[in-house]
Amino acid sequence: MIIVMKSGATPEEIDSVEHRIRSLEYTPHKIVGVERTIIGAVGDERGKERLHALESMDGVESVSPILKPYKLASREVRPETSVVDCSGQLVGGKALMMTAGPCSVESVEQICTTARLVKSAGANFLRGGAYKPRTSPYSFQGLAEEGLKLLAAAREESGLPIVTEVMNPREVDLVAKYADVMQVGARNVQNFSLLKELGQIRKPILLKRGLMTTIKEFLMSAEYILSEGNSDVILCERGIRTFETATRNTMDLSCIPILKSETHLPVIVDPSHGTGLWELVAPMSRAAIAVGADGLMIEVHPDPANAYSDGPQSLKPARYASLLEELKPFAELMGRTIGS
Ligand code: PEP
Ligand code: MN
Q1: For residue 120, which of 139, 137, 100, 140 has the smallest C-alpha distance?
Q2: CATH number of 2-64
Q3: Nearest CA owner, ligand 1 atom 9
Q4: What is the pLDDT of residues 136-161, one digit of tens each?
Q5: To 5 degrees, how large is the angle CA 260–CA 269–CA 212?
Q6: CATH of domain 84-333
Q7: The overall pTM is greater than 0.70
Q8: CA of 208 to the centre of ligand 1 (A)
Q9: Where are the domains of the chain?
Q10: Which atom of ligand 1 is nearest to the CA of 129?
Q11: Which residues lie closer than 8 Å to 129 by C-beta, 6 or more apart?
Q12: What is the mean pLDDT of residues 31-35?
């Protein structure tokens, strides 16, 4: 249910509504808007009619059901776009989230060189995987904690916050010790135990769409994190699997305007995994900005031909720099900015 408070509702009135929601065994999620406060009451779908009793409480303007299956993720509950604070970098506002870096962290030179070069190109986040979800168990699986330490060193040197993947609920605390943003990879989008665990921490989560995930399922996955109390979620479209084999995945750009109207969460695009081909990263980046994406995740490697993973879709740093120069006027047209 959505409980809309009157615009002049006092903090005491808001507190007592939250208290009453808890006493009815629902969880209140308070959203303080510019005009008024809205409280989402979520919990067991059965018996939610009992919440209508709140209508007679002081300070309450209306009580109505949340029609969408995703509650806290929907714009019904929070009409304004959320801005997620990632160690000081704001995602979802005017500045685009430009995250760049190698698929896998390989060595201190590789990650620090990449960090320095993408930062000077205009990136505001460094990406790199220390735990890699590989199709084959015989492929490079990532450097694990050693990789996280190298990412931390690259952050130290470059000042860029780091985005890195967590694959296993058991590793959430360890990855959270190093990461600024915790990535959930496409293959784990419906790993509900992992999502619930990530709902318990106070770190932004970058949730990637799965290879076979509908928009509704994607938002329900975000809802798992939000419903556990972590409201800092960024969504990422990274291509879905279709019958087409010319590209690694098919980038579903129409999901961006749909997501932007359904949810208040920021939405970014990963054209590297979306296409699997470095030559397509530039045109699809332009397209992503044109359809309203809040940022781009792009794989960049100093030596793509010898990358441990995803070389064919990785840009060389110089090409990334020229891409960002080329994207700046596109961003401006959309009322957005890249770099400082
Ligand atoms: C990645 O970001 O390197 C990655 C493995 O992405 P995805 O989960 O989208 O395949
Ligand atoms: Mn990759």
Answers
A1: 100
A2: 3.30.70.1140
A3: 186
A4: 999 999 999 999 999 999 999 999 99
A5: 85
A6: 3.20.20.70
A7: yes
A8: 8
A9: 2-64, 84-333
A10: 3
A11: 102, 103, 104, 105, 142, 147, 164, 165, 183, 309
A12: 84
